[in-house]
Amino acid sequence: MSWTTPGGDFGPTSASAIVGSDNGSIGIWSSAIMVGEVQSWLDSPASNFGWIVIGDEGRGSTARRFASREGALPPTLQIDFDPPPGSVACCFTEGVCSVELSTLACTDAGGDPANPATDTCEPNPCPQPLGACCNLDESCSDALDRLVCESAGGTFQGESSSCNQGNVDCGLTPFVDALPIPPPLAPTGTRADGALQYTVEAVAASQQLHSELPPTDLWTYNGAYPSFTIEATVGDPIEVTYINNLPTARGQRGSHLLDVDQCAHGPNYYGDSARISTHVHGAHVPARFDGQPELTILPGETDVYEYPNNQDAATMWYHDHALGITRLNVYSGMAGFYLLRDALEAGLGLPSGEFEVPIVIQDREFNPDGSLFYNPTLQDAFKGDRIVVNGKVWPFLRVAQGKYRLRLLNGSQSREYSLRLENLADPARVIPFNLIGTD
Fold first, then answer.
1. pLDDT tens figures, 70-96
2. CB atoms within 10 A of CB 329
3. Distance CA 149, CA 5 (A)
4. Most exposed: 153, 207, 236, 301, by fewest CB within 10 Å?
5. Distance between CA atoms of 216 and 208, rounded to whole angstroms?
6. 10 Å Cβ neighbour count for 144?
7. Which runs of consecutive H residues, i.e. helices, occur in 51-200?
8. Among 201, 274, 205, 213, which residue's Cα sits nearest to residue 240?
9. What is the rounded CA–CA span in Å between residue 224 and residue 378?
10. pLDDT digits over 375-407, tens only?
């Protein structure tokens, strides 16, 4: 729809098309009417003051997914057109390129015609300034071409800028904190039948997730994020007592560390936002002990679960599963490894001890004071802007020469990862590794 007067109402719809049914899909369409009206806008800008792209507002789910507030990928409109004869690519400061109608129009606008002459800005023919670049991982690179910086997803800091300048701040420095290794959870007792007993307590805790961040308030199991690792053996059942000792913060029972969207099923039904229900992801267990979302434990309450461990060895993890607030509880820190071992695995001669490294990868977003940021409105998907590994943002691990076994877990809510081994001295070199198994 086009604006026919400045700030006025919209004109009639010029063209419509079904773009796609999936959120984030790319739709490409055109029509003679649309092409004609966009060309008219270019030729006669005094009679057309802009355009708006709308979704099918008669369908609530479509309108919500199309909106920029809730949609994971706000829509963008790209218009391709052929410049008229005589047009030139015009270069401005900071290497910005713009197609102007003539050489005179370029110089009148304060630019310089591209050399060699061309009538397109794709690829950009203009000389690019060199300066500091804030990379996606928030590291800083000096003397980088602006286009090279931005094409890799970085943020150019200005011509002649340098990483050691006081006004260049790329955020959190990567690879300055050592990778934490979650220690095993110690048993708290033994049943009469010999089954080991463990205690997992949901409590509030404060933990520094990066050396340049203030401590972050979390909801955890046993005061650690990620929590202590439960190690069990196939055929040997264990018993876990779960205790909900989450605080009644904000002055009353039922409040949460994060904002709770009451529109979701769960919070709008139960009301109490400090509920927990622990699920061991990948475990073969009776339904009673599977972390049913509605079988929750309130603050001050306790429940006892039994895990038979009658399955193959596996890398698993335990995390909260409460109805309507699972995303909030796990995001707040309630997660830990559950490693199940057997004699077959022990006979494979795999790296063990310090050479066996569990790695849980999660994405988070932080407020300036170090607190967790999470959108208060329920979304289809959440993707944080920083990667947290074993509770540290972009950590490093010093390794010895030899083989390591990495138990990799994607504990993020929505983000997918492409993982590889990379030699920074020779990025083109392919480094192979063996994949033992996957769920």
1. 455 555 666 777 788 999 999 998 899
2. 26
3. 40
4. 153
5. 6
6. 23
7. 60-66, 103-108, 146-151
8. 201
9. 27
10. 888 888 889 989 999 999 999 999 999 999 999
